Amino acid sequence: FPAVFTREQEGIPDFDTTATLYQYPWELVADIESEITDDAAFLKPENTAATAVIYEGAALLGREQVFLGDMVEVEPTAVLDARHGPVVIGANAKVGAHTLVVGPCYVGPNTRLVGGKIAGSSIGHTCRVGGEVEESVFHAYVNKYHAGFIGHSYVCPWVNFGAMTTNSDLKNNYSNIRVSVGGSPVDTGAIKVGSFIGDHTKFGIGTLLNTGISIGVSCNLFGGVLISDNDVKSFSWRYTGHYSRHEVEKALETARRTAVRRDVTLSETELTVLRNVAEGTESDKGILRW
């Protein structure tokens, strides 16, 4: 925010806006269903592309609120349920067999849904998503191909969830969830809050995530155990409860390899940003500061 104040001092004019200003990411996650609904209000049934293919055996419920982009494929036994909110599927996306999509829900271009239930969520472009995802925001290039649950979470680009990775988004006593912000706990005022995960972080199979956990950039967390911490700093390497430093250049090489699998070459600017994050991790604990 200091940069905003500086820009105001430089004489850039103010103007009124109806946009919502979020202070914390869990506020955006809580509003994602209404945001999708508001955006979809500008669409009309004729916005569904003629090139979209709905195979025999697929079901579209509340069809007038289902919007399909160019070359979308909806395979047999897939269900798009828009009875309680719109379902918007971007161009070249594929909804695989045995997938249930419950609106309000947005699925970005070139994304593959490979079975399971996706409800009340915004999924970015070029993702691979299976298992169960509930009321979450996934940025682009997220890979959650296998079974496991992610709910009420904010997931940055290039995150990979190993099979059966699952997060908690509700305490057993139904009390408000606290999230660590800059190392200090903040009461979210909500009983359902999941995980906040930075770019390029990877989870091994069977990883379990604590309620309201914040995880930094380029972490490698594996060993099939519960991550019970409130904060996991960027460039952390964790195996069966023990943390060490994820070597920066090895982490960057993993990031490059991951990107190539999606026909993307990371720019030198992107790699420099990651190195800068790593330097901050060493000097300032690397705690995510929303």
Give a verbal description of the structure.
With 290 residues, this protein is an alpha/beta fold. It has 4 helices and 29 strands. Mean pLDDT is 92; it is low at 285-290.
Helix amount: 10-25%
Q: Using DSSP, what is the number of strands? A: 29
Strand content of the residues, in percent? 25-35%
CATH topology: UDP N-Acetylglucosamine Acyltransferase, domain 1
Low-pLDDT stretches? 285-290
Distance between the termini: 11 Å
The assigned CATH architecture is 3 Solenoid
Mean pLDDT: 92
Instruction: Return the domain count.
Output: 1
| Rg over CA atoms | 20 Å
| Category by helix and strand content | alpha/beta
State the fourth-level CATH superfamily.
Hexapeptide repeat proteins
CATH class: Mainly Beta
Tertiary shape: globular
